[in-house]
From TrEMBL, chain A:
Organismal lineage: Bacteria, Pseudomonadati, Pseudomonadota, Gammaproteobacteria, Pseudomonadales
GO cellular component terms, A-Z: plasma membrane
Protein name listed in UniProt: ABC transporter permease
Pfam families the record matches: BPD_transp_1
PROSITE patterns xref list: ABC_TM1
Protein source organism: Pseudomonas trivialis
From TrEMBL, chain B:
InterPro entries to which the protein is assigned, alphabetical: MetI-like, MetI-like_sf
Matching Gene3D superfamilies: MetI-like
Single Gene Ontology BP annotation: transmembrane transport
Domain ABC transmembrane type-1 stretches: 61-251
Coiled-coil stretches noted in the UniProt entry, renumbered to this chain: none
GO cellular component, one term: plasma membrane
Keywords linked to the UniProt accession: Cell inner membrane, Cell membrane, Membrane, Transmembrane, Transmembrane helix, Transport
Regions that span the bilayer: 6-30, 63-87, 99-123, 129-146, 186-209, 233-254
The protein's name: ABC transporter permease
Lineage: Bacteria, Pseudomonadati, Pseudomonadota, Gammaproteobacteria, Pseudomonadales
Principal subcellular localization: membrane
Family per similarity comment: Belongs to the binding-protein-dependent transport system permease family.
Database matches in PROSITE patterns: ABC_TM1 (PS50928)
Location in or out of the cell: Cell inner membrane; Cell membrane
From TrEMBL, chain C:
Gene Ontology biological process terms, A to Z: quaternary ammonium group transport
Pfam families per record: ABC_tran, TOBE_2
Domain of life, per lineage: Bacteria
SMART domains xref list: AAA
Domain spans labelled ABC transporter: 6-237
Name under which the protein is recorded: Iron ABC transporter substrate-binding protein
Record key words, sorted: ATP-binding, Cell inner membrane, Cell membrane, Membrane, Nucleotide-binding, Translocase, Transport
One GO CC term, this protein: ATP-binding cassette (ABC) transporter complex
MF terms (GO), sorted A to Z: ATP binding; ATP hydrolysis activity; transmembrane transporter activity
Organism: Pseudomonas trivialis
Length: 271, 264, 343
């Protein structure tokens, strides 16, 4: 189209903003990570050679994967149900289930404390039932619950949207060929939802990797990477390591997003 | 109508999930309004905690509102033209740009904040003003406006409308304000609501970018969670929820309307 | 295998919004016959098919396959083959994967499955297409794969929902005759839904015309066309000329433009005939008027003739002789092709 170059001008402010305040700082961060402050070598080297940092990265990844899978199972089940069934109070239920998506991490952390903290619901419940307080808010389990809290609504929303575009006659066709309920779920619904589940899972993973607020509220002793970055930066003022850790965390997250995009694109031709 | 046992099972499961989402929020509401949470509701209901929170933390509420509104304005000014350009161009470059735009959301907020801080932190006046946080928020919320606006533009077959306006003699600027903007009002509104909601709740970036003089609501929340008693923290959370839930309800109403329009 | 009879007894189906899709439907589809269900959209024809398939359960009434009451059986246990309107091929499986899906569910061993798959690919003329992805197929090929998939488990009944509607006109014509040959060769009981009268006439042994959830007529294609039960059926299958009877005359009935031959004793208010049953005559005819327009349609031409009535008469003439507009035209009617209709 002849007006394409002119339309490109409208992109200029956004481009300038991203360039100045994101691309440039990010490049700076990457360079900072390569700086050597003392005999310990560059920030990257310190991160990649330290069992502590690598451990925290592995733990963060494992936690994020576990959260993502659990959220996909729970959210997928509820999402398909909510998309497919009509009953009284359905839209209210959907609204309630999707509100937590916009809650910031700190608030989610606090809610986990109310649920499983020292004076939480589970502590009271445990005291009643077993005579001991059940407290798991300040551990990885608490973090897991918190991440689930904002991952489930995302999965439910995505699955509901994807269900709308699923072709109902595919399910009927499978039934007509003799497939029972579970067969249809495995052979038609899950393959149909797979691209949506994959991309949503990738976003859940990314959010869980970088969720700092929840971990910050639940306690800075948790060994997950965002907290580690924060501690290195504020307590030791070790900019090189903080930058390197950030870059590695960002690269990991980005790699997973990119990989999913590739896979989903291939799956997209199947769909 | 008769329901199968599978339906009942699924409903129960979904209700359980809903309880998981809702119970902590209700606990927090209750804690913020009871005189003594350890004693329970028997100690009576009170607004004292809310008043105390307001006395101690009201500046954070005002700053957050100011930030959210400023952020919405900035994102509109930058984002609507960007969405327009992306829809019009629709080539390799524009798709690459879309990817780039989403990256600050996909990347851990802490990394972006650290990058900003280490690059622009030495400019003292900028660093200590609320504009520093604003930059972070604009970066983070930009795609949430651009995406819905683009969707509406694509659905309205904007290029065709614009060609029609051009055939009637409207120049590019005139077209943008008389045809483009009015026809994607719903998308802009949905985007703005989302931006305001996200900006009000943004913590990951803000915690790194704030100074003691520029505390936003979520920063104050984190503060109170770490140091104040449970009732105060709960009352503070209650204020936050009161601000954010109406926005979310409006957002759901608008997106329902938008998707109805899509189906028509 | 003997073909099975399908019976619907007093079936009624209403939807959640209160609209009744099917009222008290009684229907018997004889074993081995192909029944076409014809009607405008919203007449209940798809619901009837879905009742037979087991995709819907009647609110009242029963469905029998042979002597077995299948009313409460879900579709997966009714042993029907179904071809869907948009084919509903599984996009995550290739052509062969789609065809053997039903066999897999029935636990047929792999070797036998593959044999049956090759057989069916041969039958629908798609040998060597087994490993193709669904996306590489044209519309006509998809239709054939859908048919092969439905037939693979050797179902008792074949159901087709607008099987040719998604194809373009030329392809539709060709696949229609292929499908006709196939259904006759298999001798299977088949029911298909269509809104295309030509398709119903060509494929159906009998046609069920539906109107607003009720049976308008159930008869052979010839009967439906030549002795339609009511004005709705007559208007839905083909075009119609209506003559208001002015008076009885010695030779028949006096109408606008002339007299029509009529032997019966009663005198109807209106009589009807089809456009192709009017012939253009050189000299004398039953009716006289003048030409309003002539449309060339290839094998025949359609004439609009004004005989002084409220509507011009439609005449389908195969001689393709060119007449001048305004020229006088004499028309004769083929004997016994006049009919009356119930309102």
């Amino acid at each position: 189209m002849a007006s394409t170059p002119r339309a490109a001008w409208a992109l200029a402010p956004a481009f300038a903003l991203l360039l100045a305040f994101w691309l440039l700082p990010l490049a700076h961060l990457m360079l900072l990570g390569a700086q050597r402050r003392d005999s310990l070598g560059s920030g990257y080297w310190q991160v990649l050679s330290s069992a502590q940092y690598l451990g925290s990265l592995a733990q963060t990844c494992a936690l994020a994967v576990f959260v993502t899978l659990t959220a996909l199972v729970i959210g997928g089940t509820s999402g398909v149900f909510l998309a497919r069934q009509q009953f009284f109070g359905r839209s209210a239920l959907v609204a309630l289930l999707t509100f937590p998506l916009a809650f910031p991490g700190v608030v989610v952390g606090f809610l986990v404390i109310l649920l499983a903290g020292r004076q939480g619901l589970f502590a009271a419940l445990g005291l009643q039932l077993a005579g001991e307080r059940w407290i798991f808010a300040y551990s990885l389990a608490g973090l897991f619950v918190g991440y689930l809290y904002f991952s489930i609504p995302r999965v439910i929303l995505t699955v509901m949207a994807a269900c709308e575009s699923l072709d109902r006659s595919l399910e009927e066709a499978a039934h007509s060929l003799g497939a029972g309920h579970w067969r249809v779920v495995c052979d038609v619904i899950i393959p149909g939802l797979a691209p949506a589940l994959a991309s949503c899972g990738a976003i859940c993973f990314a959010t869980s990797m970088g969720a700092f607020g929840t971990a910050f509220t639940l306690g800075t002793r948790l060994n997950v990477t965002p907290v580690a970055i924060y501690n290195v930066f504020t307590n030791y003022a070790n900019f090189a390591v903080a930058a390197a850790l950030s870059v590695v965390l960002g690269a990991l997250t980005w790699a997973v997003l990119l990989l999913t995009r590739r896979l989903v694109k291939n799956a997209g031709t199947v769909l | 109508m008769k329901r199968s046992s599978l339906f009942v099972l699924q409903l129960l499961f979904t209700l359980l999930v809903c309880a998981f989402m809702l119970v902590p929020v209700l606990l927090s509401l209750m804690a913020g309004l009871t005189r003594n949470f350890f004693v329970g509701l028997a100690s009576g209901l009170t607004f004292d905690w809310l008043i105390q929170v307001w006395q101690a933390y009201s500046p954070t509420v005002w700053l957050s509102l100011q930030l959210a509104l400023a952020c919405a304005v900035c994102v509109c000014v930058v984002g609507v033209p960007a969405a327009y350009a992306l829809v019009r161009m629709n080539n390799r470059f524009s798709r690459a740009f879309e990817e780039l735009m989403v990256l600050p959301v996909a990347m851990p907020g802490l990394a972006s904040a650290l990058a900003l801080l280490l690059t622009y932190g030495q400019f003292g006046a900028f660093r200590s003003s609320w504009l520093f946080i604003l930059v972070g928020h604009v970066l983070f919320t930009l795609p949430f406006l651009v995406r819905p606006v683009m969707a509406v533009m694509q659905r309205q077959h904007l290029p065709v409308l614009e060609e029609a306006a051009a055939s009637l003699g409207a120049g590019p600027i005139k077209r943008f304000f008389s045809v483009v903007v009015p026809n994607c009002r719903a998308g802009i509104l949905a985007g703005v609501l989302m931006v305001v909601t996200l900006s009000l709740g943004e913590f990951n970036l803000t915690w790194m970018l704030h100074t003691p003089m520029t505390k936003t609501l979520p920063v104050g929340l984190a503060d109170s969670y770490a140091s104040a008693r449970l009732e105060i923290a709960s009352a503070y959370t209650l204020i936050f929820l009161l601000m954010i839930v109406p926005l979310l309800i409006a957002l759901q109403a608008i997106s329902a309307r938008l998707s109805r329009g899509e189906r028509r | 295998m003997t073909a099975i009879t399908i019976r619907l007894k007093g079936c009624r189906k209403a939807f959640a919004d209160g609209t009744v899709a099917v009222h008290n439907l009684d229907l018997t589809v004889e074993g081995g016959e192909t029944l076409a269900i014809l009607g405008p959209s919203g007449c209940g024809k798809t619901t009837t098919l879905r009742l037979i398939a087991g995709l819907e359960r009647p609110d009242v009434g029963q469905v029998f396959f042979g002597d077995q009451d299948v009313t409460r059986l879900p579709i997966e246990r009714r042993d029907v083959g179904m071809v869907f309107q948009n084919y509903a091929l599984f996009p995550n499986l290739d052509v062969a994967g789609n065809i053997v899906y039903g066999l897999k569910i029935r636990g047929v061993p792999a070797l036998e499955r593959n044999k049956r798959c090759d057989e069916l690919l041969e039958l629908v003329g798609l040998h060597n297409h087994g490993r193709r992805s669904i996306h590489e197929l044209s519309g006509g090929q998809r239709q054939r794969v859908a048919l092969a998939r439905a037939l693979a488990p050797r179902p008792k009944v074949l159901l087709l929902d607008e099987p040719l509607a998604a194809l373009d006109a030329q392809l539709r014509e060709r696949l229609r005759s292929e499908l006709d040959l196939l259904l006759r060769g298999l001798g299977i009981t088949a029911v298909f839904v269509t809104h295309d009268q030509g398709e119903a006439m060509a494929l159906g042994d009998r046609i069920l015309v539906m109107e607003q959830g009720r049976v308008a007529q159930l008869a052979s294609p010839r009967e439906i066309y030549q002795q339609p039960a009511n004005a709705f059926v007559a208007g839905f299958v083909g075009n119609l000329n209506a003559f208001q009877v002015i008076a009885q005359s010695p030779r028949g009935l006096k109408v606008c433009g002339g007299e029509l031959p009529w032997q019966a004793a009663d005198v109807p208010a209106t009589v009807y005939c089809r456009p192709e049953h009017l012939r253009v005559m050189d000299g004398e005819g039953h009716l006289h008027g003048h030409l309003l327009a002539q449309f060339f349609q290839g094998a025949q031409s359609r004439l609009l003739v004004d005989v002084g009535g409220p509507q011009p008469l439609l005449v389908d003439s195969s001689d393709n002789q060119l007449h001048a507009v305004g020229a006088p035209i004499a028309l004769a009617i083929t004997p016994n092709m006049l009919f009356t209709l119930n309102a």
